[in-house]
Structures are given as structure tokens and as C-alpha cells.
Design goal:
The complex is a heterodimer of chains A (416) and B (301). Chain A is an alpha+beta fold. Chain A is 17% helix and 35% strand. In chain B, the strands form two sheets. A six-stranded mixed beta sheet of chain B has the order 3-2-1-4-6-5, sandwiched between helices. In chain B, strands 7-8-10-9 form a four-stranded antiparallel barrel. Chain B is globular. Classes of the chains: A alpha+beta (416), B alpha/beta (301). Chain B: Keywords: ATP-binding, Nucleotide-binding, Nucleotidyltransferase, Transferase.
Chain lengths: 416, 301
């Protein structure tokens, strides 16, 4: 059994919380004491039924305001798969929260209100899903009960969305008509939508295929920690501990350590009390090299035959996440894998109006702004373009005055 | 690209080990908060996998309310002897003796709330900059929103509105002097995941997790272990029952469930079909709907 992490993009008005509540409720992921609290709550739907949206509203401030501010994580499982939902808010002022939730998602559910169709926020959500390179997309056309389960309404929305998907560059899209409020097509198929022959949302989530890049060409191991017991019997033991972020390493593979550029071969791969022949993407291991070279935290071990780019001047997409605007004269910190070094955003190329997708040449980068920039780093970063290797293409910007994470970077390419 | 996927326990394990190593790499004086419960026992097992054959780059810290189940302390001391790592104990009794906290009175008196002060004092005394804890996001609604690296101010407070964005697997552990970070490597595990992992890895647990006979009284609809620490009166009727505990906390606030689950397989079956969540057996969460959020803001684990 594997784990699928997914994000739901939509606003309260689209019934996003209700959709998640319905998934949890109908898949019997809610326990009795939580259910009691749910039934005891004063919040009810207009028809007196329990308000499933309560299940995802975590913080008191959110309960008061009736909106989802932060990212909340929800867990449920079926016989086929385990699920982690990142429930992020959909309002434009919470773009950074959606970006945060989307960064680890393998699938995105984009909610569209059947009565409203493809609107500005659909564009925004789709752009973000594309920017963060989420592999699989589900377009859930919700509130089908409000349009009498009309097939033409659904088909029109699908046609409109295809145009948008082309513009933002989304692939692997599945369209599902649903009513979260009534429970149609969420967990169980609905007789009211008999014209739809595809899977219900949950059945789709259970069966959708997610791919992992295990090609050795992209083998990357950021070094987190050097294991040196320095005991009498393990005097010369020197193991490089880290998690294979992409690709796979085998014993005897020729590898290069970056940024130094020294080469060696893998002599041993350990995992606690076991020796492995191969370490696949996602595994946390300890690697030994045949040669004694100076390696420390922040270095990255890569397959010599397929090396990443190495540069201290990099073009990247940036999402700004702080209330203080970007200051291009200020020195920030950039954290990429296990390396944290000084940097400057040396140039703002353009911003994107994420509602209309138009470019904006206003240089003022404020909270929730997204655009293309050039970053200059104090030392070269060994990175892959985010579009081909998310694990080695994402980085964060930290304001060294506040220590707060202020930006998300999707690295694109070295600038000559 | 291929359809290769990690099994879910392998994925959760690899993620937790990654997080533990990030703590080692990013902080000067980290500590692992050890309660004697299954979640922190799982953390110790994961730390063995992250750092052996080296030593842990942090000590274990136990906040001792003085109202422990005896079995927990026995387990703790045996485990420390076995793994040969350092243990620091902070005593709630010391905080009471120093007048920093006042023992609660009345029928529902518990030292559970007092241990926050002892914890914060222990952190300050040893100048810990990161404390690893076994909290999980599936436990409770407020925890569902907490980061894996969760920054606390110098008063130990968690501010849910000022959480840092946490993207990909990049954890920002930068803090100012006096602040510290709570780190939750098993955030993404569910209760059942922990149990399945304990079974797979054959991890030993304190005996109170398994069904045994014990004198209990019923309080507010919940079964509590009869003990000298529980203020009892004539109305309290002691009954001997077959029980086990789903969490290990202070004896005055950890409720038992009637159970005949003597083996780990029985427990997993019981939880898989169970209809009450783990924290539902904690009286300290029942006080109000926002109980956990309030305690977390105050520096609770």
C-alpha cells in the first residue's frame, strides 16, 4: 500500500471543506467521539443536516470567521491506499498557503462551482498547480445538485477548462461531476448522474497512478549528516547520511560530490543493520565512498553520468510569502536541500497576474506575488530545473532579520 | 519514470529519519522529549536508524510528573541501559517545591497541566534549541495545522497565525536566541501507522499498553486507574477490570479502555475497528473544544 498526498483547491463557497468532510464521512474515517462533537456543534446546514465542513476547520479564529486560513492535514485510508489531504485556503490572500500545501502534493483537486463555471479563481488555482508541477489533476465540478445534474452544464465546463489547461500547461486531467453536500459521486456513484460513466472521486483517488523517477541518471543524495562514531572498533567509519531525493544509487556507481566536483565510487550503502545493493528515491540511507574526500552537510552526491547544473546565478520562479515586500538590495538566505547560504534577488524579470495570467512589469514584489527573478548566491548551487526534478529544484528564501521563510523558489536554469 | 512506489511504512520511516537528521544538522543543542509512550518509543527506534553506529546527537528528556505508571519508568530505565544514550529527567515535584506551580486540588486534580512549566524550565536550564516530540497531526484538529518544525517563542508559546510556510521537505530551523523549535518527525503518521510499525519492527512497549487486570474507578464516563495520586471519595466505586491504555500519560488523566487485547495483533484489530479516537481517552482534551489549541499556545508538547 502506498500514500497519496493531495491538495484541494477551491474556496469555502465552492464547498471545499464540505467535499473533504464528505470524503472522510462517507469513507468512515471519522471516529465516534469526533462524530459526537460534530453532531453537538451548533453549525448546521440549511436543511438541518450536519455541517461536514466543521471537520476540517482547526483553529479557533477560523471557526469564528468561518474560513480556512492555514493548511490543515487530514488522514484517511481505504483498503487500497492511504491518503493525506492538505486542506489549503482558496482566497487570493492565502496564495502562499496554497503554494505550501501544493509543494508536497502528488494530485490536486480543483473545485469548480457548477453554477459559476470556470472563473478567475479557477485560473489562479490551475496556474499554481502547474507552477508547483503537481502530477495529476482532478477537476471536480461541484454543486451538480444545484443545476439539476445537467450534463450540458458539466460538458460546457469541461470544454472551458480544457482551454485554460492548455494555457497554463496542465496535463493528466480527470473531470468528475459531484455534489459534496448530497454525497453524489464523492465516495459512491450517483443514480442522479447516470450519464457520467467514469469513477467516483474516491475510486479515482484509489486507482490513479503516480510515477516516481528512479532513473539513475537523476540520482541525487543531499548529505544531511556525517556519521562518525570515532570509537576504537569503528575508528575509520565515515558514512554520509541522507535521503535519496531522486533517482537511485547502486553499489559501485560512479558518483560526483558537488559543489567540490570530486569523484569516487559508492563502496557501501547501509540502512541501520542492513547493507543494501541499491538505494531508491525516497529512502533514507547512509552511503560510503571508496575514496576519502572531504564531504560535509550541504554537499550533494550525484550520479557522475547525469550531473545537475552548477551555478551561482540562476533564473527562477518566485512566490513571495511575507508581509514585508521583497527588497532587491537586501541579503537573504537561500535554503536548497541541506545547504543554507547567503543570496540576493538580483533582478525581477516580471510578475504574473495569476488571475489573468498576464505579465506585469511592476518590480514591487509583495505578499502572494509570483513571478520570474534572477537569484545570485554566495556559492554555486547544484540544482536541477524544477520542471524536470522537483526534489532538486525547489528552494526557500529566509529573511535573516526575522528568520521567517519569505519566499518559495522554483529554480529554472543557470544564467550565463 | 516508473510505477515504483515506496510502501507507506517505508515512506513514513524514511521521512521521519530525514527529519531527525535535519535536527542534528541544523541545531546546536537538540533534545528528544521522551514520555515513555509508544510515539516517543517509536522516535527512539527511528533515531537508532538515523544515527547508528554513531551516538545520538541529542539526549532524551523525560518530564516526570511523579504520577507515572510504574511500568513506564521501568521501561524507560531498561531502554536507556540497552541503548546507552543520555537521559535527563525534569521533575514536576521540583517545580512544586520551588513554588513555581501549585498542586491542583479537588476530585479532578492532575499534574498534567503543571508539567508545561517543568518542561519550559528544563529547556531553559539546558538551553535546548530544538525539542523533538512524538505528536501526530491525526491526534487533534489544532495539531492538524502544526508544522513539522514549529517555532516557539521564549515563553514556549506556539502562535498558529505566525507559522512559517513549510515547503517540500525543506525545514527552516533558523531561530533567535531564546526561541526554540519543536520538531515532530512523525507528524504524518496515524495511530494505526505507529502500531503497524511497532509490529513490523518488533519494538518492545511498556506492559500497560496490553490488556491486564487493574482496579479502576469510573469518572466522567471514563475508566481511571485507582492510584494514590487520584483523589477519591466515598462515591468512587473500585472495580477490577480487564483494561489497557491507549496512551501513556499522567495516571490522573489517562483513561483506560476495557480490552482483551493481550497481543499486538489484537491491539491493531481493536484500533482498526475502534470507534473512539486516541485523544478521546484523554480527559485533559475534554474541557473545551479549543482545549488543545489553548494548551499548545501555552507551551504544551
Amino acid at each position: 500500500m502506498d500514500i497519496l498526498k493531495f491538495i484541494t483547491a477551491g474556496s469555502v463557497d465552492d464547498g471545499k471543506s464540505t467535499l473533504i468532510g464528505r470524503l472522510l464521512y462517507d469513507s468512515e474515517a471519522i471516529l465516534v467521539d469526533q462524530l459526537e462533537a460534530l453532531h453537538a456543534s451548533n453549525r448546521k446546514n440549511d436543511d438541518g443536516s450536519i455541517d461536514l465542513a466543521i471537520l476540517t476547520d482547526g483553529l479557533k479564529a477560523e471557526r469564528e470567521q468561518g474560513i480556512t486560513i492555514d493548511v490543515a492535514y487530514k488522514y484517511f485510508e481505504t483498503d487500497k491506499r492511504k491518503f493525506i489531504i492538505a486542506d489549503a485556503p482558496g482566497h487570493i490572500q492565502y496564495t502562499r498557503n496554497m503554494v505550501t500545501g501544493a509543494s508536497n502534493a502528488g494530485l490536486a483537486i480543483i473545485l469548480i462551482d457548477a453554477r459559476k463555471g470556470v472563473i478567475e479563481q479557477t485560473t489562479r488555482h490551475s496556474f499554481l498547480v502547474s507552477l508547483l508541477q503537481i502530477q495529476q489533476v482532478v477537476v471536480a465540478v461541484n454543486k451538480m445538485d444545484m443545476v439539476d445534474y445537467n450534463e450540458d452544464v458539466f460538458n460546457k465546463i469541461v470544454a472551458d477548462y480544457k482551454v485554460l489547461a492548455g494555457k497554463v500547461g496542465l496535463k493528466n486531467i480527470t473531470y468528475i461531476p459531484v455534489s459534496a453536500l448530497k454525497g453524489d459521486n464523492i465516495v459512491y456513484p450517483s443514480a442522479k448522474i447516470s450519464w457520467y460513466t467514469g469513477d467516483s472521486l474516491l475510486t479515482h483517488l484509489e486507482n490513479v497512478e503516480l510515477e516516481i523517477d528512479d532513473a539513475s541518471a537523476h540520482a541525487r543524495l543531499p548529505v544531511q549528516w556525517v556519521v562518525r562514531p570515532q570509537t576504537d572498533e569503528l575508528h575509520d567509519y565515515r558514512g554520509y547520511a541522507g535521503r535519496v531525493s531522486s533517482g537511485s544509487f547502486k553499489v559501485n556507481d560512479k558518483v560526483t560530490v558537488l559543489p567540490s566536483g570530486f569523484s569516487s565510487t559508492i563502496s557501501k550503502i547501509e540502512f541501520y543493520d542492513k547493507e543494501l545493493k541499491e538505494a531508491l528515491a525516497g529512502k533514507s540511507v547512509t552511503v560510503h565512498l571508496a575514496d576519502n574526500i572531504d564531504i560535509s552537510r550541504g554537499d550533494i552526491i550525484v550520479n557522475s553520468a547525469g550531473q545537475p547544473q552548477l551555478s551561482n546565478l540562476i533564473e527562477a520562479d518566485l512566490c513571495w510569502m511575507d508581509t514585508r515586500p521583497l527588497d532587491t538590495t537586501l541579503t537573504y538566505l537561500v535554503q536548497h536541500n541541506t545547504k543554507t547560504i547567503r543570496c540576493k534577488i538580483s533582478e525581477v524579470l516580471y510578475k504574473v497576474n495569476i488571475n489573468t495570467l498576464e505579465k506585469d512589469y511592476d518590480e514591487d514584489f509583495k505578499l502572494n506575488d509570483i513571478g520570474r527573478i534572477v537569484i545570485k548566491t554566495a556559492e554555486p548551487l547544484a540544482f536541477d530545473p524544477y520542471q524536470i526534478n522537483k526534489a532538486n529544484g525547489g528552494a526557500i528564501i529566509i529573511d535573516s532579520r526575522t528568520n521567517v521563510t519569505v519566499g518559495a523558489l522554483m529554480l529554472r536554469q543557470a544564467v550565463d | 519514470m516508473s510505477k515504483y512506489r515506496l510502501d507507506y511504512l517505508d515512506e513514513l520511516e524514511a521521512e521521519a529519519i530525514y527529519i531527525l537528521r535535519e535536527v542534528a544538522g541544523q541545531f546546536e543543542k537538540p533534545a528528544l522529549l521522551f514520555s515513555g509512550g509508544k510515539d516517543s518509543i517509536t522516535l527512539v527506534h527511528l533515531a537508532l536508524k538515523a544515527f547508528r553506529p554513531g551516538k545520538f546527537p541529542f539526549p532524551l528528556v523525560h518530564i516526570d510528573t511523579g504520577h507515572n505508571f510504574e511500568e513506564t519508568i521501568t521501561y524507560r530505565d531498561d531502554m536507556i541501559a540497552r541503548i546507552g544514550e543520555k537521559l535527563i529527567v525534569g521533575h514536576v515535584q521540583d517545580s512544586i517545591d520551588e513554588g513555581k506551580v501549585i498542586e491542583q486540588k479537588g476530585k479532578n486534580a492532575s499534574r498534567n497541566a503543571l508539567q508545561t512549566v517543568t518542561l519550559l524550565d528544563t529547556i531553559a536550564k539546558h538551553q535546548f534549541d530544538a525539542c523533538i516530540g512524538g505528536a501526530r497531526r491525526d491526534e487533534e484538529k489544532a495539531r492538524a495545522k502544526e508544522r513539522i518544525f514549529s517555532v516557539r517563542d521564549e515563553f514556549g508559546q506556539w502562535d498558529p497565525k505566525r507559522q512559517r510556510p513549510e515547503l517540500w521537505n525543506i525545514y527552516n530551523g533558523k531561530i533567535h536566541k531564546g526561541e526554540n523549535v519543536r520538531v515532530f518527525p512523525i507528524s504524518n503518521w496515524t495511530e494505526l501507522d505507529v502500531w503497524n510499525y511497532i509490529r513490523r519492527e518488533n519494538i518492545a512497549l511498556p506492559t500497560i499498553y496490553f490488556a491486564h487486570q487493574r482496579d479502576c474507578i469510573t469518572r466522567n464516563g471514563q475508566l481511571m486507574a485507582a492510584s494514590p495520586f487520584l483523589n477519591m471519595d466515598a462515591d468512587d466505586k473500585i472495580e477490577n477490570k480487564n483494561v489497557r491504555f491507549r496512551t501513556v500519560g499522567d495516571m490522573t488523566c489517562t483513561a483506560a479502555v476495557e480490552s482483551y487485547a493481550f497481543e499486538i495483533d489484537d491491539i491493531i484489530d481493536e484500533i482498526a475497528s475502534s470507534k473512539i479516537s486516541e485523544r478521546g481517552a484523554r480527559m485533559d482534551d475534554k474541557v473545551s473544544e479549543a482545549a488543545m489549541e489553548e494548551r499548545k499556545k501555552g507551551g504544551y508538547f
